[in-house]
Design a protein that fits this description.
Strand content: 25-35%
Shape: globular
Number of helices: 2
Distance between the termini: 76 Å
Length: 258
C-alpha cells in the first residue's frame, strides 16, 4: 500500500513537471508571437548609428518607428520575406517626415533620412541651398551646433532652419562650404519613389548618391520615426555602471522626432 502511494506521488510529480514545462513553452511562444505582431504592425525600435541626421538625431539615440504610418510591405516583417509586393493600406509619406527605409541597393540595410522629394519632384542643390521644383527652400541661420570630439575639442558647426513648401521646419548642418554635395542635380523623382536626405548635409549618404541609395521605392519604407525613448552619448562602457547616469542624455528621453 505504501509502495503504491509512493508510485502514485511520483507519477503526479512527473505530470506536474511536464505540465509546468508545457505551460512555460506556451508562454514563451505567445510572448514571441505578440512581440512579432507588435514589431510588424505597430512599433519597431531603431538605433541611430551614424551622424547623418545631426542635429535632429544623434548617435546613441534609440527611437520608436511607427509601422502603420505608411501601411505595410514585405519590409514591415523581420528579414523582409517575399510574401507579397507593394503595400497594404498604403499611406503616402509627407514632405519633411523622418522615415526608416530599406536601402534600395540591397533591400536589407536600414537607413533613416528625411523625405524632401515626392514623386514627380525636381530636386537640386545649389551652393548648399535646396531647391524643389526650381524654387529655393528658405533657410535661416540659427545658433551653431556644438559638438565635442573624442579628444575633448569643441567644434561649432553652422546650423540652419529650413522651411519646406508644406510648412514643415527642421534644422540642418552645413559643415563644409562648397562641398561636393553642395552643387548636385537636378534629380527628377520617378513615380512611386521618394528623395531622401540627411539633415547633416555634408555627411550623409542619401538619395544624392545613386550608387548607395538613390531614389527610394514606396515599398522600401519601413515606418515613420516618432519618439526617442532612450539616448546615451557613448562615454560609458556596458560594464562601467557608475558612469551610466552621466552618459545618459536625460533631456532627449521622451522627445518627439521632428
Amino acid at each position: 500500500m505504501a509502495k503504491s502511494w509512493k508510485v502514485t506521488m511520483s507519477e503526479n510529480a512527473r505530470k506536474l513537471r511536464g505540465s509546468s514545462l508545457s505551460e512555460n513553452v506556451r508562454t514563451i511562444i505567445y510572448a514571441l508571437l505578440i512581440a512579432i505582431v507588435i514589431r510588424a504592425l505597430l512599433f519597431q525600435p531603431f538605433f541611430i548609428p551614424s551622424s547623418s541626421m545631426e542635429s535632429s538625431l544623434l548617435i546613441g539615440d534609440y527611437l520608436f518607428v511607427s509601422k502603420y504610418s505608411y501601411g505595410y510591405s514585405r519590409h514591415s516583417l523581420p528579414f523582409s520575406p517575399p510574401l507579397f509586393s507593394g503595400r497594404i493600406a498604403g499611406v503616402q509619406p509627407e514632405r519633411g517626415d523622418i522615415a526608416v527605409f530599406k536601402q534600395p541597393t540591397d533591400n536589407r540595410t536600414d537607413f533613416i533620412k528625411r523625405v524632401v522629394g515626392l514623386p514627380g519632384d525636381r530636386i537640386e542643390m545649389r551652393s548648399g541651398v535646396l531647391y524643389i521644383n526650381d524654387r529655393e527652400v528658405p533657410r535661416m541661420r540659427v545658433d551653431d551646433f556644438i559638438e565635442n570630439d573624442a579628444f575633448g575639442n569643441v567644434r561649432r558647426v553652422p546650423r540652419y532652419k529650413e522651411t519646406l513648401p508644406n510648412g514643415v521646419t527642421y534644422l540642418t548642418l552645413d559643415r563644409m562650404r562648397d562641398s561636393m554635395w553642395d552643387n548636385v542635380g537636378p534629380y527628377q523623382v520617378p513615380e512611386g519613389h521618394y528623395f531622401m536626405m540627411g539633415d547633416n548635409r555634408d555627411n550623409s549618404s542619401d538619395s544624392r548618391v545613386a550608387e548607395s541609395v538613390g531614389y527610394v521605392p514606396f515599398e522600401n519604407l519601413v515606418g515613420k520615426a516618432e519618439i526617442i525613448f532612450f539616448s546615451a552619448d557613448g562615454s560609458a562602457a556596458l560594464w562601467q555602471v557608475w558612469k551610466w547616469p552621466s552618459a545618459i542624455r536625460w533631456d532627449r528621453i521622451g522627445k518627439w522626432v521632428e
